[in-house]
Amino acid sequence: xxxxxxxxxxxxxxxxxxxxxxxxxxxxxxxxxxxxxxxxxxxxxxxxxxxxxxxxxxxxxxxxxxxxxxxxxxxxxxxxxxxxxxxxxxxxxxxxxxxxxxxxxxxxxxxxxxxxxxxxxxxxxxxxxxxxxxxxxxxxxxxxxxxxxxxxxxxxxxxxxxxxxxxxxxx
Length: 171
Ligand SMILES: [Zn+2]
What we know:
This protein has a single domain, classed as SET domain (Beta-clip-like, Beta Complex), CATH 2.170.270. 10% of the residues lie in helices and 22% in strands. It has helices at residues 130-135, 142-152; strands at 9-11, 19-21, 30-33, 37-39, 47-50, 53-56, 66-67, 73-76, 81-84, 95-96, 109-110, 121-122. The protein has a three-stranded antiparallel beta sheet with strand order 3-9-8, with no helix packed on it. The protein has a three-stranded antiparallel beta sheet with strand order 4-6-5. The N and C termini lie far apart (34 Å). The protein binds zinc ion.
């Protein structure tokens, strides 16, 4: 699917929330771009891209994408696109882990995704302990990697160093 189109997507009508894939997508496929207006403060539908930078889609449909602790989408921060995290079936509801972009959720909530690795309270990446932050290492936004390493002396994403505690997750 060419990037920048929404042909693969349509708002779910039943239930009314969410967004579903119109057709099957292969793992790694680029579904659509992240674009919108950059704001200094978050909204309920924005994606955080920096310490005080949030992209709001305004007219795009991706604000309908729901949270999951085991999502079928991820954000490719090198190309600024939404990408299939695994094979996606036609009609499947699209989801992303909000904890991979948001330091502080505008509206925290309790996740009930039933995944064995559910993060529970979704309040933002800054509220996770080091172990939970480490679990997200493959998909977390660059600005959150900096937050984690600033608070841990580089022990979470910065790699092993002599000053890192044994209890801190390491590469
Ligand atoms: Zn969950």
